[in-house]
Amino acid sequence: MRIKNNIALLALFAVLLQMSQLPVVAAGESAPAWKILNLDIDQSVSAQKKLSPFIDERKDLHNSVNAIRLWTNSKGLKILRAAVSDLRAKYPEDKWLTFVGSGDFHQVTATLIESLPKSAQPLTIILFDNHPDWFKAPAHYHCGAWVVQALKHSFVEQVIMLAQNSADLRGDQFRLAPYNELCKGRVEMHPLLRKSSFVPLVWNSRVAGVESAKVGLFGTELRFQNLRDFGVQNLAEKLSKNLAGKNVYISIDKDVLDLNDAVTDWDQGQLSLKEMLEIISRVSENARIVGVDVCGERAPEPVHGLLKSFDCGRQFKRKIKNFDLANLVNERTNLEIIKTLRQAQMIRKEVSGSIEKN
Fold first, then answer.
1. Contact assessment for residue 187 and residue 178, using Cβ atoms and an 8 Å cutoff
2. CA atoms of 343 and 341, how far apart (whole Å)
3. How far apart are CA 211 and CA 316, in angstroms?
4. Which of 3, 55, 130, 165 is 20 to 30 A from 255 (CA-CA)?
5. How far is CA 104 from CA 32, 195, 217, 267, 326, in A?
6. pLDDT per residue over 59-76, tens digit each?
7. Which domains does the chain have, with CATH numbers?
């Protein structure tokens, strides 16, 4: 009898252990459908013919490309907000996967986040990008400064930066960043390869957004838990656990990827598409993904205007090379992102249905 009881207890323990590993889905929760949208500013995404059948609605904003590109002026911002507001009126409760074109338009993310319904609050943002996009630029709606705009919203609890690998992580660059938010942990960093950055003339040993901080005579050394050393699987597991049950918005600039998986307008990182999708899949199992946007296409037209050309370092690049080939690579990656998000949603629905039956 004692043996049978022990066997029964072991069986019960196995069932409980299996249940504890299921994604966190509230009873009765139904995952909203994905609406796949294209804010067609530079006509890069609309040229991807295999992607087009998946687009539920496309907003043609090409006439305003110069007003929106790199930094968005007041006219461009008004047009952009009107387009997003119109889409939100049509699809108020749906989850949006929004393709916006080149990384020159990453500031569109700030407008998309502003439009999220109250049900998406409080919010955690995950940023895949080769650059932190957090600089305090004079133009508020700038592709390199939109994170600062997002942090101004009290409903944004945290921004988690993943796989950055650019020179923007040099220590001197942190003086232009929202350093106080990094200290409070409201910004969390996991670069791809960088182990540390020395921030001169800043002394703070309590920096919650990095692995550790060491104060020295001339400043503070920030030490990072980077993806390569910690491991993509380990980080994916950690984020999945920490973000369980939370509202999460994912913003992707494909310049975070290596050249096998994306061809963009900016210097690129070394993350593989497989690694990025693994993290997205694991986080999606437990978190409530409320929206995703994707930029990092190769723009078919060069930047116009002397100031904007100098701002992005393309003053001598007046012709776009290999656009069609680049667009094929980017289209393939966009299709894989759609596939991953839909598979994650199917898993959540299956788990939700199983919970409701039990």
1. yes
2. 5
3. 40
4. 55
5. 30, 28, 39, 12, 16
6. 999 999 999 999 999 999
7. 31-166+246-357 (3.40.800.10)
